[in-house]
């Protein structure tokens, strides 16, 4: 009598859960947790920078402050102080009234007449570039320069807004003396008596013109939101990266499981 052969033990492919619980994928999950924690910390740091903890009070730039309380000679103007109204005293330096072209006043193109104000009672020779006033044409600007040079002398008190240096720009071809940017650094190269002179980096737009010029239109700066939305966007990006680390782990583990299932089906199919 023939003994029957028992059927072969039926095999089943591993489940996705079984693959994920293997040591290799547990180790990768721990690595993903570390990476996600770093991304989360970076997102939190970015979010902390997005909201100012001590924002500038509304209208702070409209309070007239002493110049030396807002910025020091040679220092950059802090962002919250851009457009700050300040006051100071000094003397005009004759011969240093210069014209800057391409200046708009209420949408009309014209010229600024600028001057070197030597600050009074400074511990060392210190100057501030001042936009004295606006002229509609070059002839009016030149006449104002002559008048200001004649009237220069004695201490004057000025107030106005502090504006950052606009940066240098090469003059047009054939016009080497033309200036189209209000830049104290460029004006310094044309001023007199600048040996060992300390200079303020920002310039002042005078609240009241002189020399027969028109008042420069210099409105209050637009109030900035205390929330930096660009930093908020960066913080959201870090959160996405943290989530992507887990998705990548899941996708790799699933791909490995699918390959094992395909290999199992190929083996059982060939059998």
Automatic annotation (TrEMBL):
- State where it is primarily located: membrane
The answer on whether this UniProt entry bears the keyword Ribosomal protein reads: no
The cellular location(s) given in this protein's UniProt record come to: Cell membrane
Q: Which UniProt keywords apply?
A: Cell membrane, Membrane, Transmembrane, Transmembrane helix
Asked if the keyword Transmembrane helix belongs to this entry, the reply reads yes
Q: How does it sit in the membrane?
A: Multi-pass membrane protein
InterPro entries xrefs: Surf1/Shy1
* Organism superkingdom: Bacteria
Family assignment from sequence similarity: Belongs to the SURF1 family.
Q: What is this protein called?
A: SURF1-like protein
């Amino acid at each position: 009598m023939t003994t029957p052969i028992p059927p072969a033990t039926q095999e089943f492919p591993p489940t996705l859960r079984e693959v994920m619980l293997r040591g290799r994928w547990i180790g990768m999950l721990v690595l993903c947790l570390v990476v996600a924690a770093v991304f989360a910390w970076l997102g939190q740091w970015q979010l902390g920078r997005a909201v100012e903890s001590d924002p500038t009070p509304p209208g702070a730039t409209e309070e007239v402050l002493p110049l030396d309380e807002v910025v020091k000679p040679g220092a950059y103007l802090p962002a919250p102080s851009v457009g700050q109204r300040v006051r100071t005293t000094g003397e005009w330096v004759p011969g240093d009234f210069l014209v800057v072209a391409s200046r708009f006043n209420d949408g009309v193109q014209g010229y600024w007449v600028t001057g070197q104000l030597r600050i009074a009672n400074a511990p060392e020779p210190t100057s501030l570039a001042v936009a004295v006033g606006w002229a509609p044409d070059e002839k009016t600007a030149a006449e104002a320069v002559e008048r200001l040079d004649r009237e220069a002398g004695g201490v004057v008190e000025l107030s106005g807004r502090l504006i950052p240096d606009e940066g240098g720009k090469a003059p047009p071809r054939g016009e080497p003396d033309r200036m189209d940017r209000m830049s104290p650094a460029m004006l310094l190269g044309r001023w007199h008596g600048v040996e060992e002179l300390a200079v303020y980096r920002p310039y002042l737009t005078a609240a009241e013109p002189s020399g027969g010029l028109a008042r420069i239109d210099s409105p209050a700066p637009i109030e900035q939101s205390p929330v930096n939305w660009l930093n908020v966007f960066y913080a959201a990006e870090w959160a996405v990266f943290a989530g992507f680390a887990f998705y990548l782990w899941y996708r790799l583990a699933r791909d490995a499981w699918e390959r094992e299932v395909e290999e199992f089906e190929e083996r059982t199919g060939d059998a």
